[in-house]
Amino acid sequence: MLIGQALGWASKVLATAGIDTARLDAEVLLAEVMRVDRTYLFSHSQDVLAGDQEELFRIWIYRRYQGLPVAYILGKKEFWSLEFLVTPAVLIPRPESELLVEGALERTARAGPTPLIAEVGCGSGAVIISLARELGRGRFYATDSCPFALWIARQNAHRLQVADRISFLRTDLLRGVIGKGWHGRFDQVLSNPPYVPRQEVRSLPREVRLYEPRRALDGGEDGLYFHRRLLPEAICLLKPGGYLLMEIGQGQCQAVLSLLDEEKALAEVEVLRDYRGIERVVCARKG
User: Does the structural domain 80-286 have CATH classification 2.115.10.20?
Assistant: First the structure.
């Protein structure tokens, strides 16, 4: 089969599954099979695929046809211009979550020379690892309740050479950190908690609903179950002047701001918008 024929066939197959990015997905998968960049596919469309390449490409297209996300097929996803290992044990990192990294970096200037930062629900470790690489200093803690997610996060930390500065803890939210007696010592607490309202989980796109971990999506009845639980724990760990940064879902901003208003220890609330203009990250400083 020629490269051009393979792309045409795969695009049609994926389109019949209702995949909007059928052509792009086909190109990304074939480029990975051949270990070339996508531009090579266009300039060599008349080249013949090797037998093992065609076989693997067909397998991957079948998996994508079934709904498995491209990131899980390839076992990797780019975030903050870094490559992270991903499996169905972790949520696939989204571009909008880079706002957590941006917001944290903007606020570390007010911290000391070795900031102490925690991420709650680290998943693949994309946020805390990206932050650790950017800062080049400080001490970091990352928590998750899933041992398989923590294994992936540790692998990513080793691959990206920050494992010596990040401690990974299996715990519920921040309980394992609070148990160490570090009250009032952290400069920042970050989190992208599950925030999809439970009744909306069933209406998520098929590839998200069927393959990404539900525990990383389901935010309870109104989507704010974990935000409510996180607030008092984060306040406990933050030092005066420390920051809490939480990712939120579309349309949840006012509800989250109301929760923050109830916590008298927090002030200077700011809302960051993502590249689509959606209110995505809420920041608050401990007074």
Answer: no
